[in-house]
Amino acid sequence: MYQKKNPITEEGLRKLQEELNILKTTRRHEVARAIQTAKEQGDLSENAEYVDAKDAQGLLEQRIIDLESLLKNAEIIHKDSNGRISVGDTVKVDMTGKETVFTIVGPNEAEPAKGRISNESPLGVALQGKKVGDIASVRTPNGNKKVKILSVG
Description:
By secondary structure, the protein is α/β, with parallel strands linked by helices. It has 2 domains: 71 residues, Orthogonal Bundle (Helix Hairpins); 63 residues, Roll (Chitinase A, domain 3). 40% of the residues lie in helices and 25% in strands. The protein contains 3 helices and 7 strands. It has a 5-stranded mixed beta sheet with strand order 5-4-3-7-6.
């Protein structure tokens, strides 16, 4: 079965590895203790604490599986120096008279409010492969918007 590669920065990879380590050690022990404490209260069929702890365990284990899959398929972003925009680049653009700076990252690191946009987002797709001075056309719900690339770094 083909697994899609997940483009990720070295910083993003480190954060995911740290999260996975915390979940597998600290959080697993906390959830196990909560389950044990709830079991000691008696009848499990009407024990809300036990049900909550088991739900937390399920969510925790699913997040661990998700992180392991992301890490297994992680592909570290290596910036290109050919002047064309690619994942990992920070780009300054003119969007309808307003200068904005974005960093193009993989979907798992995207934080649009912090200027980190996914390479799979409409803007990320439109910018990739362009160079300084080019105009990118971005599809939006309100129609196409023109974006001028001012700098790439």
